[in-house]
Amino acid sequence: MLKDEIDSLTPSRDFSRRGFVQTAVGSGFAAAVLPVTAQTITTDGAGLEAGSVSIAVGDFQMPAYRAAPAGGKNLPVVLVACEIFGVHEHIADVCRRLARQGYLAIAPELFARHGNAGAYTDIPKLISEVVGKASDAQVNGDLDATVAWAAAHGGDTARLAITGFCWGGRTTWSYAAHNPKLSAAVAWYGPVARSYHAGDSTVIDRAARIKAPVLGLYGAADGGIPVDTLTQLEGALKAAGNSRCEIVVYPDTPHAFFADYRPSYRKAAADDGWARCLAWFRKNGVV
């Protein structure tokens, strides 16, 4: 059981009545997070090409959500790795926010082979039946296929970044260890000392393989990601000669502080993290 995910879903304020369930990739919200809070941010799609697409991974057609400036060509590419809830409305909205910054943003449904993550209300069951079956090897292969799709659909994959949240934050670190051509990465509160799939190594274990500049954004009050594990990762990166990564820890801040549709949202940390994320991409040539 992942205490950080369960705790971050415990209501601490009144919810709105916006309780529509996810029915397709990028639409609605996952059942486990309903009802969403009144502060939920919605970014409209005016001036964007946004919606569901299908990405070939061998014989498998993987659903994904993509957003980009309408008519854009040779756009810098940002992969968006979802939380354990799959590609629901919040992840789609993050893609639209990135598209408004000039990016081709793509969020592949990395759990699609194993079930509908958005339909679960029991988080331990979701993790055991769906999330825990998505190995790093599968996920990294799916992300490679997403990069190839982007290159064929208006993206300049020489300017390639990835960002992700919780499970997707760990996936961000993992993909940075996998793809040497990655330009930049921003990992939001991704665990670094544990894995979700049995047999996968931790981010700390793979630190020596990480060559890309990765910005890690974390909360000091995240009960599932002890700050000392971040210190261990920093030490492992330093020992491997990687001076291009940076970890920011926000004081008194919980897990999932960027998730504006949940009671864990902390606007000040979320806004600062978003500004740092965009600046990190620019600094590393993903612009």
CATH superfamily: Alpha/Beta hydrolase fold, catalytic domain
The oligomerization state is single chain
Distance between the termini: 39 Å
Point out poorly predicted stretches: 10-22
Rg over C-alpha atoms, rounded to the nearest angstrom: 17 Å
Beta-strand content bin: 15-25%
Record field, number of beta strands: 8
Number of helix segments?
7
Helix content: 25-40%
CATH architecture descriptor name: 3-Layer(aba) Sandwich
Profile the largest sheet: 8 strands, mixed
Give the CA-based shape.
globular
CATH topology-level name: Rossmann fold
Give the spatial strand order of the biggest sheet: 1-2-4-3-5-6-7-8
Structural class: alpha/beta
- Work out the count of structural domains: 1
Account of the protein in words:
This protein has 287 residues and is of the alpha/beta class. It has a single domain (3-283), classed as Rossmann fold (3-Layer(aba) Sandwich), CATH 3.40.50.1820. It contains 7 helices and 8 strands, in the order αβββαβααβαββαβα. The chain has an 8-stranded mixed beta sheet, with helices on both faces. Strand 3, helix 2 (89-100) and strand 4 (104-108) form a beta-alpha-beta unit. Helix 4 (136-152) packs across helix 5. The longest helix has 17 residues, at 136-152. It is globular and about 45 Å long. The termini are far apart. Residues 10-22 have low confidence and may be disordered.
Topology overview:
Elements: H1 3-8, E1 48-57, E2 60-69, E3 75-81, H2 89-100, E4 104-108, H3 123-129, H4 136-152, E5 155-165, H5 167-178, E6 184-188, E7 214-219, H6 227-239, E8 246-250, H7 267-283
Parallel strand pairs: 3-4, 3-5, 5-6, 6-7, 7-8
Antiparallel strand pairs: 1-2, 2-4
Helix pairs in contact: 4-5
